[in-house]
Amino acid sequence: xxxxxxxxxxxxxxxxxxxxxxxxxxxxxxxxxxxxxxxxxxxxxxxxxxxxxxxxxxxxxxxxxxxxxxxxxxxxxxxxxxxxxxxxxxxxxxxxxxxxxxxxxxxxxxxxxxxxxxxxxxxxxxxxxxxxxxxxxxxxxxxxxxxxxxxxxxxxxxxxx
Amino acid sequence: xxxxxxxxxxxxxxxxxxxxxxxxxxxxxxxxxxxxxxxxxxxxxxxxxxxxxxxxxxxxxxxxxxxxxxxxxxxxxxxxxxxxxxxxxxxxxxxxxxxxxxxxxxxxxxxxxxxxxxxxxxxxxxxxxxxxxxxxxxxxxxxxxxxxxxxxxxxxxxxxxxxxxxxxxxxxxxxxxxxxxxxxxxxxxxxxxxxxxxxxxxxxxxxxxxxxxxxxxxxxxxxxxxxxxxxxxxxxxxxxxxxxxxxxxxxxxxxxxxxxxxxxxxxxxxxxxxxxxxxxxxxxxxxxxxxxxxxxxxxxxxxxxxxxxxxxxxxxxxxxxxxxxxxxxxxxxxxxxxxxxxxxxxxxxxxxxxxxxxxxxxxxxxxxxxxxxxxxxxxxxxxxxxxxxxxxxxxxxxxxxxxxxxxxxxxxxxxxxxxxxxxxxxxxxxxxxxxxxxxxxxxx
Lengths: 161, 444
Known about the structure:
The structure holds two protein chains of two kinds. By secondary structure, chain A is an all-alpha fold.
């Protein structure tokens, strides 16, 4: 892939990558992480499956975001109990728009918040989510189903009793 | 409009990435040309100026103060949130603030008072430092044998100097290890069969999105005792320290999972080993750690009464063993703020639909937080997991402090000076951060 071709294919993903990163890190760090991401993409361009550039970028961005948060927080809190990389928007990030949703979101663990976000915010299908979090499509679908059910219960506990 | 659609729309409406910055398109071109993409922004400038100031101060102190006057702390605790998660997005305004500042998204402020039942006795406790043992590539190879993965381990492309990571990737399996902190590793396998969709929930919920809920095959999921036996066999094979009675299995129509506390020399840490079985009843995920504890000495600890005053400071936070979270109603949560949120009753709308977002009537209004007074009526001494500023793992004495509202906080009980803490968090009311600070304020 020539630099021109790389530029053409990946430039189209910029808005989605910007939004993905902005949901997970401070806005001021978005461009730095995007730069890192596209440098990795260029170095691994031969391994990126054609037609799946965006899920591949999300998968790699997930690791970069995960490392970013490790550096920021020293994994002193939520990530302390996680062994796999997780790049989930925080519950507080939703608070300005929807406090009740934010409260319910806080009742999910980070992996659940991540998969819900990939579904609802990134708009990915089960197959695409599976590529991002590196599990089978089957496992992604199950994880998503469980997470959605838990979120619904947190949003309206009275109805589920 | 069904429930799925409403849920997805509601989350989309609250999208924290809605106002994401428009990236300069040269970000892609620079990568392809091999040119460094990073530029020194405000944050970088602040860090640079701050670092320079700290360096100058440190040199001055080194010259003027004899080293023996201040015993070196064991380690510097990594900066972290105050028990609730650090804000990580929607940060266009807060990003410009000092690292130790957070905006105040909630509407409550918590004031803690020690109850009469709390002890005022001081004590002492052992401090342990996590030590990674072995060679990560060898460990991956050994795990590969157990999980049936034959590939060669490679350094990941996202690996960096501080957080090196390695992996073995096959068409249907993945094994990776982070060689920092606790040496966490995980195995994923996706050889399970393609799933069918349950007809009753397969709906086209909008023009471009089809939701498929997997059709379960519960007859493929082994019974709990069989799953537990498989977990124990694998744990034995890997040499992971465990107690059979501490393995918890959860099984439903779509699969099963098991978790147990990660022990080193019989000491329960805040870490976990986790296993998952997929819809075909086969092991689909396994994660654990590779860390040993080295005793670094016994140190004096403060009383439970004195520890209460540390809760609001935030920087004394450490992660307690998972068993404390599981003891709470509703299963595990990830920090005390979750319990705070879930303890708040949620009002149901008259038509039973999902509540609509709460409107913010006046963005310029000053929000006065509600003061919530809490009494800590019980404490339990335990070991807490802490990460230092270099990413290393430590296990230190602490207290879990249970309050009269039904949730708890966990704080380190070591006396002042044993470890170095990050700067205290400063909670700022919303209106303070809406206006971007001037450059001169940011670099001061």
